[in-house]
Structure formats: C-alpha cells, structure tokens
UniProtKB/TrEMBL annotation:
InterPro entries: MRG (IPR008676), MRG_C_sf (IPR038217), MRG_dom (IPR026541). Residues 1-42 are annotated as: Disordered. Keywords: Chromatin regulator, Nucleus, Transcription, Transcription regulation. Gene3D superfamilies: MRG domain. It comes from Prasinoderma coloniale. One of its GO terms (cellular component) is histone acetyltransferase complex. It is found in: Nucleus. This is MRG domain-containing protein. Residues 33-206 form the MRG domain. GO terms for biological process: chromatin organization; regulation of DNA-templated transcription.
Length: 235
C-alpha cells in the first residue's frame, strides 16, 4: 500500500491537543546542539511514532526566526514569495524528474498531505502571538489558504510540530512501515529545503530587514566571546 499522512477523525482536536504552540521557545537552542541532525520525538503518541531528522542549519533558522519575532518585534512580509504551496510544487516537480513508480506516488502523497496539515495546523500551532493579526487579515477575513500566504520559515515550524500533531490524531490501519515511509519522505523534503535555503528561506521582515546568516567562523568567535556578538547578528 501507499504512504499517506494518516486518516483524521478529529483534525481540529489534534491541532489543539498537540503539545506546545509556536509561542514556546523552540527546541535546539544555540549551545545545546551536539550533532548536525536533531531527532525530534514527542512522548505520548498513539500508535506508530513519527520521527523526523531536521538538519542543524534549518534548526538555526527556527531559532533566529523565533528571536526576531518574539524579542525584536519583527513580522514576516506576507504573502511570502515563494509560498508554502509553491515550495511543495517545486519539490514534487523535482521528484518527477528523479523518481517514478510507487515511490513517486508515495512521496507525492506525503507532499500533498504536508499542504493539508499546514493549512490545518497554522492558526493554532504555527504562529507566534504577534503574527495572529496577519493571519486574521489574510486568512480568517481575506479567505486565503495559509499555504498561499506563508513561506518556508513557517513550513519548518510544521515539521517540528508534526510528530506531536499526528500523535494526537486517532489513526486507523496505520502501520509502523507506513509511518516510517512518511518520515523518510518528510526528511527528504527537509533536505530539499536545506539545499535551497536562498530561495525558500529568505528571512524577509517588514521594513526590509532580513536574517543575516552567520558563518562558522562568526559562530566560533561568538562562542569564544561568551555570546557578546549575538546582539549584532542581523542587519
């Protein structure tokens, strides 16, 4: 059988019940990571557990984004360009060139499921409090789907939350093999984003400000100086 993201009996309840909202401090704070790939697991999941491996570079994006919004009062420029939908469509086009048969069908099914889960989880799980006014303007009142408003930075938040969200959903006939297959395809999508950061993770905020990527040398200097450089990470 093919790989899917699981049947949803009460999707809204799952989004409500998953542990922690976007307002919580992200996992993998600087100085706590000991390896490039961070295993993300949630306790208390029902049935087979979804385990994703997120590249360390993407975790750093999440931390920088959290700091920009919750500590520096910035907001992303929305609608984003490209959007989550455009990112997923680019990924599926890449799949069509690189694979075929059942594997292509499975990977495409998971990619489409990611779009569904993003729209489902966005309002309740993927936004920091300062971002809710934008959601109301563009989605609640404007009628746009979240995947047509937000971009890669918000999609990364979904992948962090997805194990908990899916763990809170009552799923029928979902085997460990199917969950592992979904995890594989999600991880491949994360790798696609990591390889194309300049296109999908622009870090653009209102006022034209953007995240400044920190080189390895700057990170080392920051660590040696006890973090004294951290205040100047963005321009």
């Amino acid at each position: 059988g093919g790989v899917s993201m699981g049947k949803r009996k009460s999707a809204d309840a799952a989004a409500d019940g998953a542990k922690g909202g976007a307002g919580a401090k992200p996992a993998g704070r600087p100085g706590r990571r000991r390896k490039d790939d961070i295993e993300l697991e949630e306790e208390g999941a029902k049935g087979p557990e979804l385990v994703l491996s997120v590249p360390g570079a993407l975790k750093q994006w999440l931390v920088d984004d959290w700091r920009a919004i919750t500590h520096e009062g910035r907001l992303h420029v929305v609608p984003s360009a490209p959007t989550v939908r455009q990112l997923v469509e680019d990924y599926t086009e890449k799949l069509k060139r690189a694979t075929s048969g059942q594997r292509l069908l499975d990977a495409t099914s998971v990619a489409n499921g990611v779009l569904d889960w993003f729209d489902l989880a966005c309002e309740k799980q993927l936004l920091y409090d300062p971002e809710r006014k934008q959601y109301t303007q563009h989605c609640a009142k404007g009628g746009a789907s979240p995947c047509d408003v937000y971009g890669g930075e918000h999609l990364l938040r979904l992948f962090v939350k997805l194990p908990a969200i899916m763990g809170a959903v009552e799923r029928e006939d979902v085997t460990e093999e199917l969950v592992k297959g979904a995890a594989t395809h999600c991880t491949e999508m994360l790798e696609f984003i990591a390889k194309n950061q300049t296109k999908y993770l622009k870090g653009e905020y209102e006022g034209g400000k953007r995240v400044k990527q920190i080189s390895a040398a700057e990170k080392l200097a920051d660590a040696l100086q006890g973090g004294s450089r951290s205040g100047g990470r963005r321009r």
